[in-house]
Amino acid sequence: MSIIVKNRLFTLNTANSTYQFTADAYGILRHLYYGTRVDNTDFSYLVQQRDRGFSGNPADAGDDRTLSFDTLPLEYPVYGCGDYRESCLAVTHPDGSRALDLRFEDYSVFQGKPELAGLPASIADLKTESLQVRLRDLVSGLSVCLTYAVFAEKDVIARSVRIENHGEKPITLDRVLSCCLDFFQPAARDMMLFYGRHAGERNVQRSAILHGKLRAESTRGASSLHYNPATIVCTHDTTETTGEAYAAVLVYSGSFLISAELDQISQTRLVVGIQPENFAWRLEPGESFTAPEVLLAYSAEGLGCLSRRLHAFIDAHIIHGAWAGRRRPVLLNSWEAAYFDYDDEKLLQIAQSAAELGVELFVLDDGWFGKRNGDTSSLGDWYGNENKFKCGLPGLCRKINALGLDFGIWIEPEMISMDSELYRAHPDWMLAAPGRPPIKSRCQYVLDLSRGEIVDDLFEQFSALLSSCNISYVKWDMNRSLADLWSAALPAARQGELLHRYMLGVYALLQRLTEAFPNILWETCSGGGGRFDAGMLYYSPQIWCSDNTDPIARLAIQRGTSYIYPPSCVGAHVSASPNHQTGRETALALRAAVAASGAFGYELDPAKLSAEEKQEVVAQIQDYKRNWQLYAYGTLYRLESMRGQAWLRVAADKKRAILTYVQEGADANAPAQYLKLQGLDPMQTYHVLPSGQMLSGAALLHGGLPLPELRGNYPLVQRILEAT
Ligand code: DGJ
Fold first, then answer.
1. CB–CB of 466/397 below 8 Å?
2. 613 catalytic, yes or no?
3. pTM for this one?
4. Measured between alpha carbons, how far is 178 from 699 in angstroms, rounded to an integer?
5. Distance CA 572, CA 596 (A)
6. I want to staple 544 with a disulfide (CB 3.0 to 4.6 A). Which of 14, 508, 525, 638 is the partner?
7. Architecture, CATH, for domain 638-723
């Protein structure tokens, strides 16, 4: 049993962690512990309650000046009860007052987990157990239902929240965050957040959590290129292989807030959820609001172990459907091969040479629809560009199929160009504030997906497109941030609901299309990795990681991504050299080694490769097909190295592993370098290929593998280890 309830003490156990909270004598839900698994312990003894000046006390505390919401570690803090730290819930009552005081009402424990209406969420298996705790406001009819789904074997707890209005008048929800983690002791004093920009996503910033708030957030209507909706908090001395670390991963793709602060008595508070800015939700009597799920994971063995727990969880419980756990076809995407400049003949030439190299799927990127020849027109007109395809889109698809290739296509459903048939028919379908010209971004505008009729229309259009020919892959792009937040379908008092309703519309469309076309492989994208989040992974088993395809730039982007997300979902392609984004020249072998970190493909015109390069590509594709299990699903170890970046993927049975090491530049007369491997079986002997050494797992783990002398700009070392 992973959930134990005794006298209002709630203990959630996973294989390696314990999470505990209690409803105290006042019914206040106090957080007590999250850390290494400890059985048979009531952590209430940790509470050190003292009178803190200027920290007020609830009325029912009487003369007890030590009981204060301002200082207690809490499970679900709210605004308006004297807690001045970042709260999870704030409301405005019908009379304009904002006070709120939640107390314990009841709980239930059951197998499985409830669905979250309209939202992506982790998928339970037979062993998943859930705890639901209901809190009720002392005065209004507002109640809060906290759900904790425990995935014991995976060391993950999935939290979510539902707010219900049992009163007789509407209540406005001013903020609803999904999760709070309060830490008693200085356990979590560092925060890792993942920041970036277009073509430079998910850089790692690790900094101390100090007084004053540290925030990763998006107000853009998408989780964004700029911050990822996931964080890791850890101790100052946590390393890749040692120390405590906690992850919070929001299963949501819209505007979000992650905030960490050190309070007046140096307790850390972390809150995660929907961005409160531009959010206000009117909850009518009898209605409920469900906030997105947050995945919590814990490791006492450093960041690497934490990432591996998240990878295993996301691969098993977020990614689902026909492509989960499967090898994805090696694809060639037309974007960097031709951009907008193509016709059917050119595409067929590219596809023909791709097929000769062993590519399995040809993806036609942007530019195939309406009269699109650049980024200024036709978004919304999802039918083939007659000037480009003499044989029509279905004809092109048939010809590609005849080459032995599957056919995939790019779409950008959420957008509209002013120069489009769709705009001419429905000029009022895009987001625009009354009387103001909307903000243009990449010459395009955003459809108001909060409106059901627009979602219905898009579903019809894309169903027709996907039924029109044999399309086996779809790349769903989204290339701008939302602005002009006003919907013609919402009254003035409900405009604060727009951003979340927009996300619900996107999810509804994804749900309907993925259900209607269950065998299609979906890859989402947002100007590269602008919606690289667990929400999108629920619908699309892979996400285009970045528009930057330079392998050296990708080292940082993919490493940052790997702290949270598994390699299987990382769209990574071999592109031309010099690279189109950076102008950097790199060897083909290096580009392939970096791209083989997950969903592997090419994004170049194969006709431009030399005969030797073509042979090399043939060998790369064969290698990927042989070793995909390791590349995409092998357990990932980020290795310590003096000079470059090294990572190892190890098979579940530890019998095979692939090591990749890339160094930026070489030194003359360099010191010898050794890589200490991880995750191998110390008792096995491994054959290291192609160097031919025979070394024990213990030697490789503790002595390390010597690297050869390296020369050139970006030397690469790859080794396959096979247990003898
Ligand atoms: C942005 C994507 O990230 C690119 O891969 C490409 O599909 C372009 N959009 C097309 O407009």
1. no
2. yes
3. 0.98
4. 46
5. 7
6. 525
7. Sandwich (2.60)
